[in-house]
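I would love for you to help me understand the pair of lines that follows before we discuss the fold together.
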Amino acid sequence: QVTDLVLLGIINIGSAAEFSPQVVVGTGKELGIATVEIHNFGVEEVVEECGKPSKNREGYVLWYPNGLRVKLKYSEYVQLHRVVTGYSEKSVWELLSAGSDPMASLGDGPYPPEFLEFVRTTRDKLNSKFAAAADRVHKCFNEIGNTETRKEFAAKALKISGEDSCLRSALFCLYDKRDISDSIWKSLEPDSSKSVFQQRGEG
């Protein structure tokens, strides 16, 4: 039996008439092609079922003799779909800048492998950029060296940072013995909020 293809429907090309799900299942068995599972549910039963845990299932399609189809999704699937399709590089950045691990914040899936890979690689990339930026701040701070007044430090910080306001802010954080994380994360904020799937669609 062919398992990587699923026979969803059969249409008579000449009359444009659609065959019933029972005919589709029977034809699938004859051809050795997988088909969808048929349930004799009423609308209220399906709605009630979709409110239960999904058990990794997406939902149901209501079929009517006139060809009308209505999709009903499990609530868990809808929530999962909302997370996956709305997740972007900026989403990962927001969690990291707040001190959270994006992978841990996802909770239970199941999530598509490509989505998890996107979150993981984006997290690692941003963490690497953060580490490099923090190292640069400390090197610049050490290069400035000891200063007698805040005014003298400000002059040297302005000279060494140039137009990089985030670096300058981080240098003053070190001078005031404050955490530099916020300044660095601000400098790493992604420009786009487009989701991973929107980005792939443009590629």
The first strand starts at residue 2 and ends at 7. The CA atoms of residues 171 and 177 lie 10 Å apart. The chain has a mean pLDDT of 85. Residues 113-144 form the longest helix (32 residues).
